[in-house]
Specification:
The protein is an alpha+beta fold and about 450 residues long. It has 16 helices and 9 strands.
Length: about 450
């Protein structure tokens, strides 16, 4: 009995977990319950699509036949995909570098501006605009027609300020009425002209409503006689409003063509005199030596008006879209870098100034090195973002140049849903894009962890 009692007392008694341990377990359970919906959404919206896309990339367009790595091989044989890779590389190199540099410059300059907060707000406002709306805005801004595209309207205004434009781009001489078209776009008289002669040069192709203000009838000027040492004439619109009139002859209702340049060319091909027609189209060369001359109307009289830059042409479409992207994201870069700039130790900057360093030396040797962690985070974040750019490219680039502007994200959509209907190849492109983005994301996460330590 004593042995039994000793055995029973030697068995360990069941003990309850400490109160602190129970609280920790309860807190973990509650936290898991709160996190569970987010984990379910993450799995449904991120993990499952990624795994499905990886698996789908090994099947053909119909999704019924396993093709292995054929989609990945085809991806790098397709010229459009190679162009998308090239354009994506341009985006990755150019856009983040320009935005980080511009954001740094603006952040430093804003510190010296009196209305810094208002200026930051103004630059940050485009971030509130959706990419769809920004794409439509810049599609209109880049329009080739100066009456629609604000950039070309400005370009045309500046061009026309410094260089005269032709008032008669559509004018052409009547065939068989004394003028011959030249290969450079100019016109010359078919026969030579001697001093003491008057010549009338008729043109068509100009609508009466397009005549410059102040244009006068040419009938009176056409009847004037030339002096013995002069050549005179009239450049006129050989068209009578309402019909009638005689071709090659100046009728009473026909208008002169003012501000047309006329040149007298001697037998050696040298231009000996130049003049401009008056409001009635009349011109006059005086003091000419005896001999024979040809009258020439230079091509500048008929040059097409300057219509600006083809922003959305094959050569400039990618830089133009990058410009739109910078308009949106400059404020983001400036604000983040400005926050880092505000945290810099001011005593270091003041010590450098007291030691005689100028502002450029302080910026290059102190500000930039101290801001290096912030600049790196901004740059890598923008790299991740530009790899996924889709909206701006798809909206701004017109159909004929869509292939010239395509990036991996747009190419993935075009191959899968935009007419290609090959979701196997599109999934392979999606996997490639994921593989390119993941290293930058890992780098950024590690950077954040190191900064928190």
């Amino acid at each position: 009995m004593t042995a039994t009692l000793i055995k029973e007392t030697s068995d360990p008694m069941p003990t309850k977990a400490p109160e602190g341990t129970r609280r920790i377990r309860r807190a973990r359970t509650v936290a898991l319950l709160f996190v569970l919906p987010a984990l379910l959404l993450l799995g449904a919206l991120v993990v499952y699509p990624v795994l499905f896309s990886v698996g789908r990339s090994f099947f053909d367009a119909s999704g019924t036949r396993f093709v292995g790595a054929d989609n990945y091989t085809e991806m790098f044989r397709d010229p459009a995909t190679l162009k998308a890779v090239r354009n994506t590389a341009i985006w990755v190199v150019v856009a983040p570098s320009l935005l980080t540099g511009l954001g740094l410059i603006l952040a430093v300059l804003v510190e010296k501006v009196r209305w810094a907060t208002a200026f930051k707000l103004l630059l940050f406002m485009p971030m509130a605009v959706s990419f769809l709306a920004a794409g439509i805005i810049f599609r209109l801004a880049y329009d080739q027609d100066p009456s629609k595209g604000v950039l070309n309207a400005a370009a045309v205004s500046i061009h026309d300020t410094f260089k005269d434009t032709s008032a008669f781009p559509t004018a052409r001489a009547r065939d068989g009425h004394g003028l011959t078209a030249q290969s450079d776009g100019s016109y010359r008289t078919s026969a030579t002209v001697s001093p003491g002669t008057s010549v009338n040069l008729g043109f068509v192709g100009v609508a009466p409503n397009d005549l410059p203000p102040g244009a006068q009838p040419a009938y009176t000027a056409a009847g004037r006689k030339a002096a013995a040492d002069a050549i005179s004439g009239t450049v006129y619109l050989d068209f009578t409003p309402g019909g009638g009139g005689e071709q090659g002859k100046v009728d009473r209702q026909e208008s002169g063509l003012p501000k047309m340049r006329v040149q007298a060319v001697d037998e050696g091909g040298d231009t000996v005199a130049t003049t401009t027609t008056g409001a009635d189209g009349s011109f006059h060369f005086s003091g000419l030596d005896a001999g024979s001359y040809l009258l020439k109307l230079p091509a500048s009289n008929f040059a097409q008006p300057y219509e600006g830059v083809s922003w959305l042409g094959p050569a400039l479409v990618t830089p133009a879209i990058i410009g739109a992207y910078m308009w949106i994201w400059t404020g983001f870069a400036m604000v983040l870098i400005g926050a880092g700039l505000a945290a810099l130790p001011r005593d270091t900057l003041e010590a450098a100034r007291m030691d005689g360093a100028n502002e450029w030396q302080i910026f290059r040797r102190i500000t930039v090195p101290l801001l290096a962690p912030v600049l790196t985070v901004v740059f890598v974040t923008l790299v991740i973002n530009v790899m996924k750019v889709f909206d701006l490219v798809y909206i701004i680039a017109p159909g004929p140049v869509q292939e010239d502007a395509t990036v991996l994200a747009t190419q993935m959509w075009l191959v899968s849903f935009g007419g290609g209907n090959n979701q196997g190849l599109g999934s392979a492109l999606g996997v490639l894009l994921l593989l390119l983005v993941v290293p930058a994301m890992v780098f950024n996460v590690r950077r954040f962890r190191r900064s928190q330590r």
